[in-house]
Write a structure and sequence with these properties.
Length: 330
């Protein structure tokens, strides 16, 4: 009998520990109850992963969604999945082509959206790549840098006139804790030497640090502040999404299968991963230029919170794009 009780106690202890681990790594949960009825929200990279999961949650709250996808076919498949999941075939969901690796595609996307909508409530820059093989885009920029940072930078500026039409519009830049793994030197080299191959994790970390710096500085721009636009960065955490398709340890099906039990414990599902983004979109907190993680305000790295570095890097980016301070190519 004593042996039996030992087994029961051990099972309870192991079960409690596993449950605690799952709860801990699943992160925060958005508790905001606000509705988004008829508010237009653009989500980049919305055909899979975090973007798709976020689209489901926003559709449930009545938002009008624009799924901005590089692969238009997958975009329509995602739309069908979302409509089926929310059980409302009449939900307003639009699929539009957007390739962040092409400045021309960004301009075409903005022209298309501007012709259909008068105002945008929110832009969620969610699309991204990780460990992508080195290469340059047709615009001459490194693929990870343009997809994760330069593309969202241009897209956000081009959509600003539509965002300014909405009271307290929101811009959410999806970032990563990987921004802590790089330094100012990495940032400088990756930005100024586009043709020089960087280690994949450095390239990714730099792109996310750049996006954080952009968040901080863009929130202070007069055209943004005067319009009461709220600009924040969000860390979704480690999430099970297709972004890892190029990562060697997970691209191998055998290694992926071996790690699966551990990943079930410590890696978030896309629905769990989108919670902090959802919170940033719904919260009544009007703080801007901030960093959210696990559904609460957090502190980014010292580099990412430097106003001087953010200001300088903003102008470096404008020069990189050959933009003048008060104009853009849109």
């Amino acid at each position: 009998m004593r042996q039996l009780w030992k087994y029961i106690a051990g099972s309870i202890a192991i079960g409690s520990t596993l449950y605690g681990l799952i709860k801990y790594f699943s992160g925060g949960v958005c508790r905001c109850s606000a509705r988004l009825t008829k508010r237009v929200i653009i989500i980049t990279g919305a055909n899979s992963g975090i973007g798709k999961a976020l689209a489901v949650e926003l559709a449930k709250k009545g938002a009008i969604l624009i799924l901005a996808c590089r692969d238009i076919k997958k975009g329509y498949e995602a739309k069908s999945d979302i409509l089926r999941e929310i059980g409302n075939p009449q939900a307003n969901i639009f699929v539009k082509h957007l390739d962040l690796c092409s400045l021309g595609s960004i301009q075409n996307f903005v022209f298309n959206v501007s012709g259909q909508f008068r105002a945008i409530y929110a832009l969620v820059n969610c699309a991204g790549v990780f460990y992508h093989p080195f290469g340059l885009t047709a615009d001459g920029f490194e693929i990870t840098f343009q997809t994760n940072y330069l593309g969202p930078f241009v897209l956000t500026h081009c959509l600003l006139p539509l965002l300014r039409q909405h009271l307290q519009a929101r811009i959410i830049n999806v970032v990563s804790e990987a921004h802590r793994r790089v330094n100012v030197y990495d940032l400088k080299v990756a930005t100024t030497c586009q043709e020089k191959e960087q280690p994949p994790y450095v390239a990714y970390g730099v792109s996310k640090l750049a996006l954080l710096l952009f968040t901080r500085e863009f929130a202070k721009q007069p055209s943004v502040k005067e319009s009461n636009i709220i600009v924040n960065a969000v860390n979704p955490g480690n999430v099970e999404t297709p972004i890892y398709r190029h990562f060697p340890a997970l691209a191998n099906p055998w290694l992926f299968a071996i790690q699966k039990p551990i990943r079930l414990l410590v890696v978030k599902t896309p629905k769990q991963g989108c919670q902090s983004i959802l919170h940033a979109l719904l919260t009544s907190n009007t703080s801007t230029g901030q960093y959210y993680s696990d559904c609460k305000l957090s502190l980014a790295s010292p580099i990412a919170t430097s106003d001087k570095i953010a200001r300088d890097y903003y102008h470096i980016t404008l020069n990189l794009l050959n933009w003048h301070k008060n104009e853009s190519k849109c």
